[in-house]
């Protein structure tokens, strides 16, 4: 792989000597690449002193792995291991709590968070989803400040939310931390000057990727742990995690006030002009800068953007399979991402793709990226009697695998929890646990995206790119998702659409269906409010392409 060098305004960001630097980069402008190049610059220019480290941090596990891979490519394995710590917030917080928790009376044997804990604890208390949501939101909000368990309990009591109170009581009895507790305690510990000082001595510089996904608490944690030579990189218009606690507006305002220097990128190194025309059409009303292609002529005539309307999602799925087959044959080294807002809308495509034996397909929500987890799961599944009720089989599988992994390894336990819930869905659809397990794949983050088709949803696709992207299901209820009600939630859906479209390098295919399948039959759908904007920015479809897609 040839080395990548910064170009244009990227150079300003890579070489900046500012102590606090803000880099705003729309999709494909090289955000992650600039982080890797700046890591290289800081380490090789001696900003990171002998024995000290650079902290590179981001929100999600996948974004963290993506960043780690690019930094390793840029800096080499040895130097990365010697000088760079790449983590996500839960990882850093778990490390701080484990190392220093005793200082604030947090028991050494406190149980670290696990994904199912909240839902397992709240389920016996109420079956009302709104009440559960309210309790969860309240607890997350109260825990987003550096208070101790007693102060927290007082606030919960004052709120008069019985469910939140019982959940909190159970947590204390079980000597357990939930995710918001991990961040709360890490923040409390970093407010102890001696502890903060240890981290400040350790980290000579900071790189934050995806600042738009951060909460104020997470910003406080990194600012205390690594205040010097900080670069915050992100794109407010790709903020799609406010449902999980991100506070894009307040975090951006805080960073704008804090950073003396700011760099804005507007050249896409990813996408063809045809793809960018669609991305710009959706991003414009959101107040985004117009993106232009770094080398527009290089794409001529290979860039494409098309829109297709179908009568049903079954016809749509058949059309997508025909296009994918043609692309796989014509461009055997290229990747095709088939992206939906939510997994359920992909049902017909999943069925049609699994029947197309000649197309290499990877389903991302059936992939595991912790090395060895798949083997652990398969051996744990051995001997579990299929005559037992499904819940018991899955519970046993979880317990056996979790015993091998160990409670400390929060990230792997999380991945295990996800895998178990996918197995549950597949089993409900009639597939045996063993057959579903056989379809899981191990994906290593160091691998480049393989040629062939990749089936994924919007949130998993963030930060990724494919030669071709099919975005399907542009109907109301799918995108925007039916859950989105307020103006703010709808704006977040528009950003989700922008994130999906901007994964494409060379070509984009966008589809909608007039009717989609559910368990009662076909249901009439209204086209998405953004369909005409998106379709209006695509090219006229040539007859040959139309015939290919329609199978005529
Ligand atoms: N200076 C450069 N020279 C060559 N290629 C570059 C350069 N900068 C970025 N690229 C390429 O452009 C593409 C997009 O870069 P990158 O993934 O870093 O963008 P991003 O801003 O993180 O995107 P997103 O926010 O959409 O995830 C990648 O293929 C990357 O290798």
Automatic annotation (TrEMBL):
Domain UvrD-like helicase ATP-binding: 4-272
Keyword annotations from UniProtKB, A to Z: ATP-binding, DNA-binding, Helicase, Hydrolase, Isomerase, Nucleotide-binding
InterPro entries: DExx_box_DNA_helicase_dom_sf, DNA_helicase_UvrD-like_C, DNA_helicase_UvrD/REP, P-loop_NTPase, UvrD-like_ATP-bd
Binding-site list for ATP: 25-32
EC numbers: 5.6.2.4
Class of this enzyme: isomerase
GO molecular function annotation: DNA helicase activity; hydrolase activity
Reactions this protein catalyses: ATP + H2O = ADP + phosphate + H(+); Couples ATP hydrolysis with the unwinding of duplex DNA by translocating in the 3'-5' direction
Family: Belongs to the helicase family. UvrD subfamily.
Protein name as catalogued: DNA 3'-5' helicase
Species of the source: Subtercola frigoramans
